[in-house]
Amino acid sequence: MNKNLPLSFPFTWGSSAFPVALSCLLAACATPPQLEAPKTVVATQVQTPEPAPPVGPPVAPVRNVLETFFGNVVVDPYRYLEDVKNAEVITYMKAQGESARKTLDAIPGRAAMLNRISTLSEAGVAISSVQISGTGASTRVFYYKLSPGESMRKLYVRDGFNGAERLLFDAQSLNVPGQRYALDYFKAAPDGKHVLVGIAARGSEDTSLRIVEVSAARDLGVVIDRIGFAEESTWSDDGRAFFYNRLPAAKPGDKSNRYLFSRVYRHVLGRDVAKDEAVFGRGVASPTKIDFADIDIPGVEITSDGRFLIGKIRHGDLNEISLYIAPASGSPTLYAQPLTWRKVADPTDLVTSYAVHDAALYLLTAKNAPRNKVLRTAIARPDIATATTIVAAGDTVIRELAVAQDGLYIRELFAGVDRLQRLNFSNSVFSGGKLEFVRLPFDLAIRQLVTHPKRPGAILRLEGWTEAPRYVNIEERTANVIPLPLHPKSAVDFSAIDEVRLMVTAKDGAQVPISLIYKKGIRLDGNNPTLLRAYGAYGITLSPSFSPASMAWLERGGILGTCHVRGGGEFGDPWHKDGQKLTKPNTWRDLIACAEYVVERKFTRKERLGIQGGSAGGITVGRALTERPDLFAAVIPSVGLLDTLRAEFTPNGPPNIPEFGSVKSADGFKGLAMMSSYDHVKNGTAYPAVLLMHGVNDPRVEVWQSSKMAARLQAAGATVKNAEPVLLRLDYDAGHGVGSTRSQRNGELADIYAFLLWKFGDPEFRPK
Description:
This protein has 768 residues and is an alpha+beta fold. A hairpin with a 7-residue loop joins β4 (140-146) and β5 (154-159).
């Protein structure tokens, strides 16, 4: 699963793409450090301390569960907290959440901080996720819009870029007492007559699909449930049908993983959903033998000319995919017949994405090209072994391919900045074409690249750390950048904010990029409140993102830093692999190196330094916490993955085994034991202040990941004089961040900033 999340950078546990990245400088990847041998991880019995005062969190009793993995005994003192439906656990979690809420609300400057953040976040209109359908006079533009005074984004449409804006769909119209719905996906049909929308309740990501007729902005009343991977939904070329990935129906009492064994179905507009036929996936008849694993996520799309079906298989959260091609022309009953698929690539070919134009299939691969290259083969008879190299491997990381009528647009990362090339189809496509650079207006991130196979040019969403989002059009003939009237100018002025990119030498000598933003003219005297953020998983690159609300921190003299640690994709596949499984310690040690750097260079000091990471970034900050508790004043894991030894036994666990490993193998256990923050907490250690944040409805990282960590840290500090607080902030109307309202996001950020400033000793935030 892969979704966009709040707080300016991706919190994806189960990546693939919600997108949901950042600027850096090129550096050679170093040899992984020597890893310590797996040790027995034992949590000793903790004596129950004196009853806490009424404002303190409740004490969780210790109930040890012992397991042995390859001769290593692991003791889990709070396994019972995983049963979140147990009445005792429910009571405990609510008491922990209420205690955290009281503590945060008692911080004197918190209310004023929330007010400032809310003002900044509502200072202008936010436009995102633009899609285009149709051509010429039939062009329609679809997008999300979040307006001042509104808490949830809505779906809008225009007839042409200069057409009048119309509200197309508002998920809040479905709200009933006690149930709030959010719009988390949409896909416009090629002809622009219908839009597929994905709806989920209260951050659960338990998604259902609906169909909206565009001309009348009318919901057709079709509801398709059990959608686990809405991003795999695609329309047919004629807009009369669509393909979607659906999870199997749960049987009564069945506790098996909900994300396994999904299949692709085809729905025809006007036909009963019960008649939708399975066309790709495990158990679907085909003369072609395809071995689908339980974690495989199949998807199907049809080429824009309607001639071929493309079957894609994502293997859990592995970046490399499998590809198959089948003819799509002929009998109207084609989809009722077994399809004959021709294999194009499997994971050993290291293909991560593709694009199609007329007779050509373009493949993005890391095979013999660590920073990727682009191949081309004939779609009618694809053969990767004889494919032509169109863009050779170089010093850039090729990140994305997109086909327009005039050319293949290629997004690359170079020296921390996105750039764009175009393979001009006007120069005989199959004889090579002409590769040309598109000049962009400033050093930036291309946050969105939008093309249409039957429309020339491309639309870009450009954004920087201090540059507000803007949409531009790449003109077909000249490749000039032309502003589009979509995104209004930001009302928050960042002209007084500086942005710098620096390189930090990691423990093993690797050069790790760090991006910092702060007020111009700031004094490097060690007194600046500083928050470093990191992720480091799935090969995701943290690109520059513009956050008006962050001005609430920056205007107070604060520094915001993004550490481009290994496990991400800043330098291609080697950077990713150097922070994965047995090399995962590089990820948190890179963050530690960045923290030491900003202290040594007097950007800040330990007493005014905090770190934050979300989802898989919970590993990064959690292990930095347990390895170097002396280095930070505060640590904030958001929906964090903290008990990695138990993660694969959750509903979203198996798809993540390719990224993190499995306890069922010796090396898998060794890697997971090293990266499990929960199992590295030591009694009697003076840990910094910790704020654990989690949505109770989280379908990606179970909420007990945070509640177990809170219990373990609180117990570890029970014998420490003047132990720092460990707060468990819970939101019962949220999940992994998807579907959260603006007010929820503002509240989260206010809690983060207020908590940090309190622990940094800011007099305005010091409780009496």
